[in-house]
Amino acid sequence: MMIHHSPILIFDTTLRDGELTPGVRFTLQDKVKIARQLEEMGVNTIEVGYPGQYAKDIEEIIAVSQVVKHSTICALAGSQETEIQQAAKALEKAEKTCINLYTLVHLNSSSKTLDNNSVLSKINLSISLAKNYCDCVQWTAFDATRSEINFLAKAVKTAIESGAKIITIPDSLGVASGEYFFQLLQNLYQNLPQLKQVTVSVHCHDDLGKAVENSLVGLELGVSQIECAVNGLGARKGNANLAEIVEKIQSSQNYYTTINPHLISTISELVKQTAGPQILRCKPN
Question: Tens digits of per-residue pLDDT, 160-173?
């Protein structure tokens, strides 16, 4: 059997989702310092903030853009035109840019057909708009693990046809088992040959302690980007821990990352100092 040695991209959301950790708030100086270190460490994409929701993130993204030149700088946005424009404005000075658009795909209302169609048209319009402003549009199927699989497939197909280059399938609320998440991804790959033309990304939360495991189950199917955070910071129980993800990929013969493992402890310490030691997420051995 031929062994493929495939690159796995690391998308770091410490500065955006990490700030949703209770008690964590990074200053502009903190974000610049951490972003510099993430770039030096070899992180492919740094998600710096959500400018349409938090005014302070605009200034922070602009500041990070002045020092980070190799990693892609990413801003999160919902489907609203104003949010996309805020993200675009914040990213104007960055060398390599990405707008990460998210759309809720878990619908549970009586007027399903109407809702489904309006969501699909929202996906199309938001991606078409964001494409005017940045190098790469990433689209996230928010709450994918609780959505109806046929509709999820339609939403992903719409996003790809609209021009999204990266498709993220998240376990937004950390509710999926490894088996379920694998089956969900497998189902999408089987039904959407278009997934071979884009980068497929995963973003898993740790509510059930499965974030790292779930982030890795799709690699054999073709997932080639993992979203994670330093020290596993993030909303509720946090995101997949960057150090654990890199270590697991390194120990595999089939995949590799551009991360310099020798710099992981440095960034872990820096984030611990700026975010506060009380929220360092360590798993017991």
Answer: 999 999 999 999 99
Q: How does pLDDT run across 54-75, given as a tens digit for each residue?
A: 999 999 999 999 999 999 999 9
**Counted domains in the chain:** 1
Asked whether residue 139 is domain-assigned, the answer is yes
What string of H, E and C letters represents the secondary structure of the chain? Answer: CCCCCEECEEEECCCCHHHHCCCCCCCHHHHHHHHHHHHHHCCCEEEEECCCCCHHHHHHHHHHHHHCCCCEEEEEECCCHHHHHHHHHHHCCCCCEEEEEEEECCCCCCCHHHHHHHHHHHHHHHHHHHCCCCCEEEEEEECHHHCCHHHHHHHHHHHHHHCCCEEEEEECCCCCCHHHHHHHHHHHHHHCHHHHHCEEEEEEECCCCCHHHHHHHCHHHCCCEEEEEHHHCCCCCCECEHHHHHHHHHCCCCEECCCCHHHHHHHHHHHHHHHCHHHCCCCCC
- Whether this model's pTM surpasses 0.70: yes
| Domain annotation covers residue 284 | no
Residue 65 lies in a domain: yes
Structure tokens at 108: 């549970």
| Range of the structural domain that residue 252 is part of | 6-279
